[in-house]
Amino acid sequence: MNRLERFVGEIDLALDATSEEADILDRARAAMRELVAVDDWLPDEMAKPNPQYYTQYLLHRDAHARFSVVSFVWGPGQKTPIHDHTVWGVIGMLRGSELAQGYTQTPAGMAPTGPVETLMPGHVAAVSPATGDIHEVRNAFDDRVSISIHVYGADIGAVRRHVFEPQSGAVKEFVSGYSNTVGNEA
Would you say the pTM of this structure is higher than 0.90? Predict the structure, then answer.
């Protein structure tokens, strides 16, 4: 069994064991730490950058859409808009580095919350509507690729989510999809 298969199995077990988000996040963080501790398992085709925008490759989608696993590949200097997820998620840094800034919506627009979080290889972070779900993420490097692995509590490529205009806080709905359509689908 390869590392990704073991990770998927751990997430399956966590979801079968409890519906408590805090417990799921604890178990998903532990499994993610193990997954990103060694960088020898991600197929090359799931690590290819796009020169124009970051890519989101589907690695696994649960047959019941309870969770999905994706690789985010960040070209030099690439970043997301300010966005939310609407479901829990755990992020593990595999290669390079990411910078994440949390935000909150105010009457005057989007306001940063807390310091910028830096993820380095092996680091793990979480998002959740219950604890903080709005952020902007960018590759920490302007001269190389960074790759993070994400697990979300839904088929994230099909979830209706939101981007936020920084100055006004105006909200626009989007569905991210995937850069590929072939993954290890159960």
Answer: yes
